[in-house]
């Protein structure tokens, strides 16, 4: 059973006076993430039946995926992003992705770009499940899953999902930067705990210098770099 983990973007704090990013964290906490694949186990089909149904109902791409189409679409999406320095607190450079939902054309282009990214990286192979992390992964995940004919599984903090769940913990660092990769890594562990195969991680935005992808053991792709 193939899973694709969808995340949104990285928020970061600019180090004062260009000090080293290698400074250790001031303190750490452990956050528990839960994943739920079957909200109502007694009322829906088994995972195997759902996987078979997803495979049979998958829609074919509107056109053959091409890197040129992806490049064209991402250029349009990138122009719609807005940057807000010192938001929500001084030192934070915030990239606002909400304009991508401002009109139908941009929204449709975003989901098409995500679909193309998944198909091109995996040679046309589609995942069975799209995993979206709380909260912005919920904005894109269901729509992408619908396009790919896949199921959608939410990942949230402990206590936010009813019924039986799988859980994994990750260390979150607080310092001059907000370290990346921890929540994605934990989501990957959840997929493995459920016996799934993590086909990859899909980010909307990424800050290369934080090296969050180095913590992940499946292919990592970023839509808007």
Automatic annotation (TrEMBL):
InterPro entries: PRTase-like, PRTase_dom, UPRTase/APRTase. Pathway: Purine metabolism; AMP biosynthesis via salvage pathway; AMP from adenine: step 1/1. It is found in: Cytoplasm. GO terms for molecular function: adenine binding; adenine phosphoribosyltransferase activity; AMP binding. CDD domains: PRTases_typeI. Residues 45-55 have a biased composition (Polar residues). One of its GO terms (cellular component) is cytoplasm. Keywords: Cytoplasm, Glycosyltransferase, Purine salvage, Transferase. Residues 45-70 are annotated as: Disordered. One of its GO terms (biological process) is AMP salvage. It catalyses: AMP + diphosphate = 5-phospho-alpha-D-ribose 1-diphosphate + adenine. Its EC number is 2.4.2.7. PANTHER family: ADENINE PHOSPHORIBOSYLTRANSFERASE. Belongs to the purine/pyrimidine phosphoribosyltransferase family. This is adenine phosphoribosyltransferase. It comes from Monilinia fructigena.
